[in-house]
């Protein structure tokens, strides 16, 4: 388990041992925190037939099926595109209504549920209203503010954060991460896995240039054209922008909740379009997004 998620894992494990784990969990928190890893650990706990125990036994048939990656009582959406459609939720619902093949729990994981279309969200609501016996649904979300309140209220929400930054710093050193200067401290502390991904792909310096450029643009010290040109060359631009929006504009979520929410919606739309647009259209879409960003920051 990632060390900063260990306390949450222990609490979830303890609920499981007391048979008090709710049927729907929503693990929310920044992208790059390790929500998926935590979800997978809870899945292993729930599916182990030797339990409920503090940890999965690793030896029972169920644990072995899980390790081999094809447990019949585990479902996860295989579509990683920028939209979760209603078909995925129908599959989930069918999965839940079949009988458990190993005689234990049936567990499903749906990642980054803010990607759900309206139809998908409504279909999911039905599943949440009638939870099947022995069925557990684990949702994760980077942006729980975008979810329907009726969905959030039917789940037990776990807002994950890094409680002790020293734990992350120690982990970073043990992994062999390069020494980071002050500029990257907030990134490391709030999204350690994202920082790690950028370090591994040698992109930390490029990320720094992009973030500095965005800051200068917001302060009127860099032109739109310059900014678009530089950002267009940035690899994984949606991730860089997403981090900037959260880190730099998070205070707007209190000061201008409506404006912030609308911007997040536009941003999600841009992330979906970004993969398909080419050439000039790509630049136009980025320009439109940057105009909105500046408007929100004004
Ligand atoms: Zn087991």
UniProtKB/TrEMBL annotation:
GO MF annotation list: DNA-directed DNA polymerase activity
Catalytic activity: DNA(n) + a 2'-deoxyribonucleoside 5'-triphosphate = DNA(n+1) + diphosphate
Pfam hit, one: DNA_pol3_delta2
Domain of life: Bacteria
UniProt keyword list: DNA-directed DNA polymerase, Nucleotidyltransferase, Transferase
Membrane-spanning parts: none
Entry EC no(s): 2.7.7.7
PANTHER family, A to Z: DNA POLYMERASE III SUBUNIT DELTA, REPLICATION FACTOR C / DNA POLYMERASE III GAMMA-TAU SUBUNIT
UniProt-recorded name of the protein: DNA-directed DNA polymerase
Gene name for this UniProt entry: holB
